[in-house]
């Protein structure tokens, strides 16, 4: 991480969500007492299944829905009492490709800047378009662009008024793998400019690829917020697979405490262990296998994926 990035991420929070709840007419409680702090310059992924409350939270932060309880501050500005200043700090890229098909790229991005009362500044628009590889498309009508380019235009529109926070709501929903990876590259470039990026997604690999920290939301509750690597360390486990020289009729009785799994072909043993434990038990397991005359030809380890961790967390909340 560069010195610039380090200073940004150690600065005051750019977003502070305190005890936020949202109840719609009819009594549906979409969010329940959510607390969240986002630091300047980080990429934060809000991970959860469809209907978990991700888009509702974005709508509240951006002032598109009214709070039922709690407070939200963007760079120190209350989104309710000081809406205009708070909203000016935010760029929002929605899920839907909502663009004026017959407008040019330059005009539509310039118009978005004007919506926030910012003065005309061709240099800013040029810089934004170049950063998103849109400069050579500036005079093209939006209807002539590919799906990937249209999504880049949406990001350009959100950046036109020079916000400090960029929300990406399911940025790659419904797109193919190639376009998804292209969008990841765009987000990676944005982080280098110092923009704080908050993305919602239900794609595990998206969070794993891009985020500094991950929040997991389920049924309107923020059940966990953690650094990605720390989340893997705390909640992950490893599997040790021992590939045997010859089939094993049964697991030796003196290994019962290790909760080993014998494969269907009886040619491998799998041992799961906690990565945070003071002792993994691997050394004693290998010693006991040797004492029992169990010979092996290979050992393979596998760490839990973020997807497995996520599924486990959500299952625990059911």
Automatic annotation (TrEMBL):
The keyword Cell inner membrane does not apply. PROSITE patterns: ABC_TRANSPORTER_1, ABC_TRANSPORTER_2. Pfam families: ABC_tran. SMART domains: AAA. SUPFAM superfamilies: P-loop containing nucleoside triphosphate hydrolases (SSF52540). Keywords: ATP-binding, Nucleotide-binding, Transport. One of its GO terms (molecular function) is ATP binding. Residues 15-244 form the ABC transporter domain. Signal peptide: none annotated. InterPro entries: AAA+_ATPase, ABC_transporter-like_ATP-bd, ABC_transporter-like_CS, ABC_transporter_ATP-binding, P-loop_NTPase. Belongs to the ABC transporter superfamily. This is ABC transporter ATP-binding protein. It comes from Fulvimarina endophytica.
């Amino acid at each position: 991480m560069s010195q610039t990035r380090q200073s940004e991420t150690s600065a005051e929070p750019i977003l502070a969500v305190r005890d936020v709840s949202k109840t719609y007419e009819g009594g549906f409680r979409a969010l329940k007492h959510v607390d969240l702090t986002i630091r300047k310059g980080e990429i934060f992924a809000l991970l959860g299944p469809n209907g978990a409350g991700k888009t509702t939270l974005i709508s509240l932060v951006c002032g598109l829905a009214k709070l039922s309880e709690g407070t939200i501050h963007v760079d120190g500005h209350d989104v309710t009492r000081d809406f205009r200043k708070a909203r000016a700090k935010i760029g929002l890229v929605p899920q839907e490709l909502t663009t004026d098909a017959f407008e040019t790229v330059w005009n539509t991005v310039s118009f978005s800047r004007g919506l926030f009362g910012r003065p005309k500044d061709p240099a800013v628009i040029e810089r934004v378009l170049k950063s998103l590889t849109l400069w050579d498309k500036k005079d093209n009508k939006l209807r002539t662009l590919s799906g990937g380019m249209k999504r880049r235009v949406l990001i350009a529109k959100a950046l036109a008024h020079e916000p400090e926070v960029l929300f990406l709501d399911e940025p790659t929903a419904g797109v193919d793998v190639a376009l998804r990876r292209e969008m990841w590259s765009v987000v990676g470039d944005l982080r280098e400019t110092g923009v704080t990026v908050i993305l919602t997604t239900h794609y595990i690999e998206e969070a794993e690829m891009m985020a500094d920290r991950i929040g997991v939301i389920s049924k309107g509750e923020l059940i966990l917020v953690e650094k990605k690597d720390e989340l893997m360390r705390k909640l992950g486990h490893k599997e040790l697979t021992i590939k045997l020289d010859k089939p094993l009729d049964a697991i030796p009785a003196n290994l019962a405490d290790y909760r080993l799994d014998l494969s269907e072909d009886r040619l491998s043993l799998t041992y799961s262990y906690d990565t945070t434990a003071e002792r993994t038990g691997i050394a004693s397991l290998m010693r006991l296998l040797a004492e029992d005359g169990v010979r092996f030809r290979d050992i393979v380890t596998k760490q839990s994926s973020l997807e497995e961790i996520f599924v486990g967390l959500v299952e625990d909340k059911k």
